[in-house]
Amino acid sequence: MKRAEKAERIGQILDELYPEQPVPLDHVDPYTLLVAVALSAQTTDKKVNEVTPGLFAVAPNAPAMAALPVETILEKIRQVGLAPTKAKNLKGAAELLVERHGGEVPSDLESLEALPGVGHKTAQVVQAQAFDIPAFPVDTHIHRLAARWGLSTGKNVATTEKDLKALFPESTWNARHLQIIYFGREHCPARRHDLSACPICGWAATKKRMQEEAAR
Length: 216
Hints:
By secondary structure, the chain is mainly α. It is built from 13 helices and no strands.
């Protein structure tokens, strides 16, 4: 089966399984989404959602965050991974938003990526989920499943992103990236996964991938 045909069938299955794609990180506006996504690196969405209410109670916007000492931010987010670095980045990003953008979150990729602690994936998540701009943020779930399903042979997320954008219609990108994340979490674990019983891996996984998984 050609990649394009495979992608179309995968898209149909994902649409059936996940007709709605709620954003897993709790937020009320672009700024609180930006903060939540930045905090989610090497941390579960559940943990982020436990931490952010206390943080947003004292810093619901960029000016308020910029005014806080790093130590106060750190105290609010101490339970997440890499908390000291993230606390410094949150303050730095807030200061830059106030200085360059009037305290508002910009929607363009270049401005987002210029913020401390905001990489390409985080910027694309904000574009997609806060501004409904077509984007295909590739995290470890998506990178892994794209390889498992034979949709990409990319050795890095940048190549995988390029391959997936070429395979799926642009109008579906924002839904697809969330659907694949949900599928990976609920149906397609990295280890001890019976590919033959999986609703997508059972027919989409490459022979090489099937052999590799069976040998684990």
